[in-house]
Specification:
The complex is a heterodimer. Chain A is an alpha/beta fold. Chain A has 2 domains: about 5-245, Rossmann fold (3-Layer(aba) Sandwich); about 255-390, 3-Layer(aba) Sandwich (Rossmann fold). In chain A, about 40% of the residues lie in helices and about 20% in strands. In chain A, strands 3-2-4-5-7-6-12 form a 7-stranded mixed sheet, with helices on both faces. In chain A, β13, α13 (about 330-340) and β14 form a beta-alpha-beta unit. In chain A, α1 (about 10-20) packs parallel to α2 (about 35-45), α1 (about 10-20) packs across α8 and α3 (about 60-70) runs parallel beside α5 (about 90-95). Chain A is globular. The N and C termini of chain A lie far apart (about 55 Å). In chain A, about 55% of the residues are buried. Chain B has a single domain, classed as Pyruvate-ferredoxin oxidoreductase, PFOR, domain III (Pyruvate-ferredoxin Oxidoreductase, domain 3, 3-Layer(aba) Sandwich). Chain B contains 6 helices and 7 strands. The longest helix of chain B is centred in the C-terminal third of the chain and has 17 residues, at about 170-190. The radius of gyration of chain B is 16 Å and the shape is globular. The interface between A and B is medium-sized, with 24 and 21 residues.
Chain lengths: ~400, ~190
């Protein structure tokens, strides 16, 4: 039976870990994800999980332990944030290249310098080309639900691609909310038994993991890897649908909020999307026809689906909690604007960078963005393609 | 609870158990009243004594906002020395309630903070905690006084919950001291 509990984001991830009980959990604690690792260690000490808990000397080593354990045939996970994910960087590519369905809970946090412990998406956006599936969560409930679904998606035989689930540092990781925790047994059944492909511990078949691959076949093998993540969309869709049938909370690639008759739209991911919903309600009361599109899956990027949802808008603002210095806009913006390029009828699209280093974003800020969208929709003119929200000049 | 949503802003210092108080309040209200809750901190410099904020939202409908609380219905100040340092009145709603840990006369506070006709309650939480617990930790008396003055939930149910949850971690005599602290805070909190 499912129960209502008051848990923060880190606790919800730990709760899902306890229920799924992966074979190996390797992690090096780092703020703001520390409580996930601490709680897992406690579960292990209390005999609540049977998986091996390994706390090596760094995040680079933690991901290396994950790669070794997953190659051996285990269901494997880690949790980290910020500099921790950055330190894993070269190993992230190896996990993806070896087609190991490792799961990572990433508590999104800014990157140094200057040093800052608060929430933004610089860490996972920095890993956007590492070949991992990326799923982002609005609140504690979504963090829990996404984490459970991640195993099914990553381990699917057509996909076999490592998957990370992002939740905003402090804003979600340390925010206590009321969440629906599902029954242990039903979660276990939903995730299912893990069937590894080519486990090293199966000595009846002899093969090498990670051999050299030069100009002869590297390219073909990379192509195979790319196809793995390209195969993910129908699996993500199916798992999200099944999750809905089982637990009453269905998931897709993105959420549309009050988009039916919308003429302008704000696109924003993760915790800020919740605040944006409150802003949309207030703007709707003022008679503005505005909606929200909240991407959930960033890799693989659902380009056609998002373009279809946005093509009839007059103006769209894409908000990134990440900067891409020197680029033509931040990551989410470039994807969305690019996805709309082939449509004859398409909206004006502008980019706002917000919330770096945990800078708060509130209803008023979304209203400022909405006002700008109104101007663009009215005049058909864009004055600034990218700018900032809640930044001192 | 008359309002659909109540937002609380806590001003305290790191090490005073302010986040624990906000989390405990949300947890108990959610359990006993079946309301939606949120409790979250804003950490500054990670050192004991630094000013910190904590926030609560309590609502009859699901809570979606993840911004901090800028227009509080209730402001709790757990250390009087913050009054000259931090603008605790910032954005407070017209009908906002203030609960302040202080020995000083409420009229003095009212003048100092230009609170005019706003409702102010005071409690000398340090003295109570010092006498009952032997440590000037203001979180238990302040959260208890808050429950009493706001009627956010039934006081007896609140006490029962605290007794049970402290009982899991602390020796019976320490739990007993905490229960006396709650009674004392509830008795002494006064409106000015």
């Amino acid at each position: 039976m499912s129960t209502l509990k008051t848990l923060n984001g880190n606790q919800t991830i730990a709760e899902a870990v306890r229920q799924i009980d992966p074979d190996v959990l390797a992690a090096y604690p780092i703020t703001p994800s520390t409580a996930i690792v601490e709680t897992i260690a406690k579960f292990k000490a209390d005999g609540l999980i049977t998986g091996e808990f390994v706390c090596p000397e760094s995040e680079h080593s933690a991901m290396s332990v994950c790669i070794g354990s997953a190659s051996a045939g285990g269901r494997v996970m880690t949790a980290t944030a910020s500099q921790g994910l950055a330190l894993m960087w070269e190993m992230l590519y190896i996990a993806a290249g070896l087609r190991l369905p490792i799961i990572a809970a990433i508590v999104n946090r800014s990157l140094s310098a200057p040093i800052n412990i608060h929430g933004d998406h610089s860490d996972t956006m920095g890993a956007r080309d590492a070949g991992w599936i990326q799923i982002y969560s609005e609140n504690c409930q979504e963090a829990y639900d996404n984490f459970i679904q991640a195993f099914r998606i990553a381990e699917h035989l057509d996909v076999r691609t490592p998957t990370l689930v992002g939740l905003d540092g402090f804003i979600i990781s340390h925010s206590m909310e009321v969440i629906q925790v599902e029954d242990d047994q039903i979660v276990k059944e939903f995730v299912g038994e893990y069937q590894p492909v080519y486990p090293l511990l199966d000595t009846s078949r002899k093969f090498t993991v990670g051999p050299i691959d030069f100009t002869d076949y590297y390219f073909e093998h990379k192509r195979n890897q790319i196809e793995g993540i390209e195969n993910a969309p129908p699996v993500i869709e199916q798992v999200g649908k099944e999750f809905g049938e089982k637990f009453g909370r269905a998931y897709g690639f993105f959420e549309e909020y009050r988009m039916d008759d919308a003429e302008t739209c704000i696109v924003v991911m993760s915790s800020a999307a919740g605040t944006c919903k409150d802003a949309i309600d207030e703007l709707r009361e003022e008679g503005k026809r505005i909606g929200l599109l909240k991407p959930r899956v960033f890799r693989p990027f659902p380009d056609k689906k998002i373009a279809e949802a946005l093509k009839n808008m007059n103006a769209v603002a894409v908000l990134d909690r990440c900067s891409s210095p020197g680029a033509f806009g931040a990551p989410l913006f470039t994807e969305i604007r690019n996805a709309l390029y082939d449509y004859d009828q398409r909206p004006k699209v502008v980019n706002y960078v917000y919330g770096l280093g945990g800078r708060d974003i509130r209803v008023e800020h979304f209203k400022e963005v909405a006002e700008e969208l109104d101007k663009i929709a009215g005049t058909g003119k864009v004055e600034k393609i990218y700018s900032y929200v809640n930044l001192r000049e | 609870m008359d309002k659909e949503t109540i937002e609380i802003r806590w001003h305290g210092r790191a090490g005073q158990g302010v986040v624990t108080a906000a989390v405990t309040l949300a947890d108990v209200i959610s359990k006993e009243e079946g309301l939606y809750v949120q409790a979250f901190p804003e950490f500054g410099a990670e050192k004991r004594g630094a000013p910190i904020l904590a926030f609560n939202r309590i609502s009859k409908k699901p809570i979606r906002s993840h911004s901090q609380v800028y227009y509080p219905d209730i402001v709790v100040v757990t250390d009087p020395s913050l009054l000259g340092m931090v603008d605790v009145t910032s954005g407070a709603k017209e009908d906002a309630i203030f609960l302040i840990n202080t020995k000083f006369d409420i009229d003095l506070i009212r003048k100092k903070l230009s609170l005019e006709r706003k409702k102010i309650y005071s409690l000398d939480a340090y003295t109570i905690a010092e006498n009952e617990l032997g440590k000037a930790i203001p979180n238990v008396p302040m959260v208890s006084a808050l429950v009493k003055i706001t009627g956010l939930m039934d006081l007896d149910k609140f006490k029962k919950n605290i007794e049970v949850s402290l009982g899991k971690k602390l020796r019976p005599e320490i739990v007993e001291k905490n229960m006396r602290t709650i009674d004392k805070a509830v008795e002494e909190v006064k409106e000015g």
